[in-house]
Prior knowledge:
Blueprint: H1 10-21, E1 49-50, E2 54-55, E3 64-71, E4 76-81, E5 87-92, E6 97-102, E7 107-113, E8 118-124, E9 129-134, E10 139-144, E11 149-155, E12 160-165, E13 171-176, E14 181-186, E15 191-197, E16 202-207, E17 213-218, E18 223-228, E19 233-239, E20 244-249, E21 255-260, E22 265-270, E23 275-281, E24 286-291, E25 297-302, E26 307-312, E27 317-323, E28 328-333, E29 340-344, E30 349-355
Antiparallel strand pairs: 1-2, 3-30, 4-5, 5-6, 6-7, 8-9, 9-10, 10-11, 12-13, 13-14, 14-15, 16-17, 17-18, 18-19, 20-21, 21-22, 22-23, 24-25, 25-26, 26-27, 28-29, 29-30
Amino acid sequence: MSPDRPAPRQGIARRLLPSVLACAALITVGAPAAAVAAPAAPAGLLSGVAAGGHAEIHPGSGRPVVLATIDVGLNPRAVAFTPGWRLAYVANAGSNTVSVIDVRRRAVIDTIPVGTFPYGVAFVRRGAFAYIANRDSDTVSVIDTAHRTVVKTIPVGDAPRWVAVAPDGRFAYVSSTGSGAVTVIDTATHTVTATIAVGLSPRGIAFTPDGRTAYVANSDSDTVSVVDAASRTVTATIAVGDEPRGVLVTPDGRTVYVSNTIGGTVSVIDARRNAVTATIAVGASPRGLALHVGDRIAYVANSGSDSVWTFDTRTNTVLGEVAVGDDPRWTASGPGGAFLYVTNTGSHSVSVLTLAR
């Protein structure tokens, strides 16, 4: 297993793991959508893709398969694709680096030194820069993606983890786990403009497609903070499951899904009422959530069972599962939503998945 800064209840998670493993069931998840349509994948980048850059959805399919495994740095955490999906950046917490993957070749082509224990990854200014949240440095490294070098280091709160960029690209939100706050960065100047107090140990962040609202998972409060982006204030607090970490918003902005890592569940939130409408039992220690192209099939990475499951988002029924590496954590959909990258923290790799026909 990979190193991590101990949380107050991390030992509880380990003690509960056997019972959580026995509770695996099924899930429905969603994913955020940008205000501007994602660019079509370059010609030849996708395999088995219909005209227009969208992968075909085959009725009855949905079983995940592993296409490749890419070795990266030590203990990878978050992964994100550049606009256009030609490259992917992986934050390697154990080696204090970022691996740059050539998506077509499925190979690491560069390694960039950053701060200590890099965790979150996001791209700003149309991919010109990458933001890397360094948990143990209390900073965000700004990488010039053209030259693949760090050009600025931004001090933020204590133990930053996740980075989420507003749909219009103007601001980035960074969850500072040790500060119980979200740091707001102006992406034009790479400077901090605000700090928003939320719950205890904030982790995942996701925006609604219109950019008006951000949802923040507070892992030690067992809540989700609803942040009004205009006023930068918390307008509601939603009780969810035990140790929420991952957050995704559906493309229509109506539903929010939150993975509860210790609880082994996903909370389903009605975004119009800011209320939990369902709780779904899933695998052991769920974290990363993502959608396949078409939004009918969802993925969840279960770090406690070393697997990725797929589910029908209309019927909430499991479609299949596949073993991946040790301790899978976070996910990213691409290219074109036809493939999934999953970071395997314990085996220092990224699994490339798609759906079987």
